[in-house]
């Protein structure tokens, strides 16, 4: 049976998750909604983010998806409970992986871990609760990267100015890091995962994302959903993209769409 997966983000950040999902579920139908008209969410007021989250959830629900991935830490913090209340399907949200070193039994001082996230995520109640659970002594370093998501978004769409935008990204990273040495950087925004290699090259730290964990969660949910799926088993799946500027769905080749950044 064909699994229909809905994914949304304020822009192209969630494509970091879509790539991993596509590798795991190549016979699935993946519907990716980029709310580019309002990107990035981290610069919006909370009530506006909540409105956008509801709109994106409703649009994907119209596509009869089996589950929705809120591929944005900011959107998860602001509105995932609203989606779970209003939509009768599984909703998967994101949160920075503050527990990675304990889960993997890594010997690392938490003070050598930097957590990068949007300004909104950093001040949200949901994220503060996560810190209380995972880092109650606040030993990790937390940085709200006000402009990084927007710079990455620009770099993706403005191909003609890619070099200039990448230089702006490097400048922004250097300004935030300011010569500090970290062993690990936790990526608290899916946009950041798209440039994980660049972040590692600039900072000398290893990056920690959530895409693989989200894909594994989809596998678990697929097992529980499989018996209830009734669509045509002959479907070969596909990747469908829509943004909030034109609001029209287009089937495209994901590998062509992701020509930048290259693996």
Secondary structure elements and pairings:
Elements: E1 4-9, H1 15-24, E2 29-34, H2 46-62, E3 67-70, H3 73-86, E4 91-92, H4 100-103, E5 113-117, H5 119-123, H6 125-134, E6 141-144, H7 148-157, H8 162-177, E7 184-188, H9 190-194, H10 196-203, E8 206-208, H11 211-225, E9 238-243, E10 250-252, H12 254-257
Parallel strand pairs: 1-2, 1-3, 2-9, 3-4, 5-6, 5-7, 7-8
Antiparallel strand pairs: 9-10
Question: How would you summarize what this structure contains?
Answer:
By secondary structure, the protein is α/β, with parallel strands linked by helices.
Structure, explained:
This protein has 263 residues and is α/β, with parallel strands linked by helices. It has 2 domains: 137 residues, Rossmann fold; 109 residues, Rossmann fold, CATH 3.40.50.1860. It is 45% helix and 17% strand. The chain is built from 12 helices and 10 strands. A 6-stranded mixed beta sheet has the order 4-3-1-2-9-10, with helices on both faces. A 4-stranded parallel beta sheet has the order 6-5-7-8. Strand 9 and strand 10 form a beta hairpin. Helix 2 packs across helix 3 and helix 7 runs antiparallel to helix 8. The longest helix is centred in the N-terminal third of the chain and has 17 residues.
